[in-house]
Fold this protein.
Amino acid sequence: MERKKFFKKIKRVVIKIGSSSLTVKDGGLDLSNMEKFTFEISELVKQQIEVIVVTSGAIAAGLKYLKISSKPKDIAALQAAASVGQVELMRTYSDLFAKHGLIIGQILLTREDTTRRMQYLNIKNTIENLLRLKVIPVINENDSSAVEEIKFGENDKLAALVASLAEADLLIILSDIEGLYDRNPRENKDAKLISFVEKVTPVIEKLAEGTGSIYGSGGMISKIKAAKVCSFSGIAMIIANSKTSDVLEKIVKFEKIGTFFAPQTSQG
């Protein structure tokens, strides 16, 4: 099968869960979806697969708690919402993973942390040590302290950088869409899902049009950029719909769901 040939064995995955998959329309956390993720992740852990979670959702959770109905434009209000929401987000993850006997460790990052060698190595060591202790690292952008010029802007890019520094085998991006289509599926009913992308070309980048959800800041363009980062690092990436039943199990069994982006190999 075309996906399986890129792996001897999947030992380590980074799973990025977007805001659209973690929150309900009025901005609070989607507990049923979070229960689904934590259960599916616990099943991967049972298979001796190391899992690192890159999560969104702090701002959306905070806005709900602060009774703010729409996402503010100014960074100070977003930082306040993130500060409140991050506590609730991590408490929810901690409680849900505890049901499966798993412990989480929080890591908050800014872009600066990945550009300075000492901090980069410290992050890498922290992740390695958490995994050695059988703890699931849960990583988010440090929205409560990051200022505009050092923000990642969307967690797809953050997830790709984490996958690279953690030397993961695979980055799984869970979203509210099945994957990359040959046309915008929200505007074209006959749009076809692209199952396999060998290389991110300008043609592929042009297909990544449209915006993200109300609470997310990414969109397909940011996911394609993440795929490019992964490809150069020799890491495979998959975009899949978070609502698909047993989505993680299907992915690690190399079933044909979502869009698979092949890693660049030494021959390629």
